[in-house]
Design brief:
The chain is an all-alpha fold. It is built from ten helices and no strands. The protein is globular and about 55 Å long. It holds the Pfam family MnhB.
Length: 237
């Protein structure tokens, strides 16, 4: 066997051992015992975060979320490096014939989708949602311009340069927030801002701040990614 086969087999064996240990120690299905839930629930109430998923993502495991955010940023950078921009925008709209009813529905749903995405991001610490989900809704809503109108309409109204700056800034500010927690709370990404009142918009400390930063990063990153895919896809038509 080659060296890489030996290393790969050792890695697979290690992962398999971890999976076996995890599954054999899981609580029985339907049982009332759930160690992780019992640990998370008090912390969510302590940090005044009704949405426990956001409490996990942006408080208990905020460092993991930084890693996920970095993956999105790396995907954007890699795509921009591999798919170089063409000398000029494609002349085709790329959508073909679109039914008038589809156009009307798209134009009507566009502002609704944008408002919904903002609401999901801003209220992520209170209700189901958060930065990742809201960011995807925002990016998807923006591209209704392409589905209901034309690519040229999307290209005119799509702030690519601002999206690139916003994505990089949001990623950097996430790290700055973590350093603020390290300076004031003694640990990276510690929740050091005022917690406020349970259920209010201005509450949960750094949780909504990180949620908004993730929403900006995901929305801007997806817009930049899709812009480069659109350009090269339409160029081949």
């Amino acid at each position: 066997m080659r060296t890489r086969d030996v290393v790969g087999a050792a890695g697979l064996a290690g992962v398999a051992a971890l999976f076996i240990a995890a599954f054999t120690r899981m609580p029985a299905a339907g049982s009332g015992s759930h160690v992780y839930r019992d640990l998370v629930l008090p912390v969510g109430f302590r940090e005044v975060t009704p949405n426990l998923v956001s409490s996990i993502n942006f408080d208990l495991r905020a460092l993991d979320t930084l890693g996920e955010e970095t993956i999105v940023a790396a995907a954007v950078v890699g795509t921009l490096a591999l798919l170089q921009p063409p000398e000029k925008e494609p002349e085709t709209d790329g959508t073909g014939y679109v039914l008038p009813a589809v156009k009307l529905a798209g134009f009507l749903l566009l502002p609704v989708s944008v408002l919904l995405g903002i609401d999901i991001v801003v209220h992520g610490h209170l209700t189901p949602g958060g930065g990742f989900q809201g960011g995807v809704v925002l990016a998807t809503g923006w591209h209704l311009l392409y589905l209901s109108g034309s690519y040229r309409a999307l290209a005119r109204l799509r702030p690519i340069d601002w999206c690139e700056y916003a994505e990089a800034s949001a990623t950097g500010l996430y790290v700055v927030t973590g350093l603020l927690g390290l300076a004031l709370g003694g640990s990276f990404l510690a929740n050091v801002l005022p917690l406020g009142q349970f259920g209010s918009l201005l509450s949960s400390g750094t949780v909504p701040v990180l949620s908004v930063l993730i929403g900006i990063e995901v929305a801007a990153g997806f817009v930049v990614l899709l812009s480069r895919f659109f350009v090269h896809g339409l160029e081949e038509q």
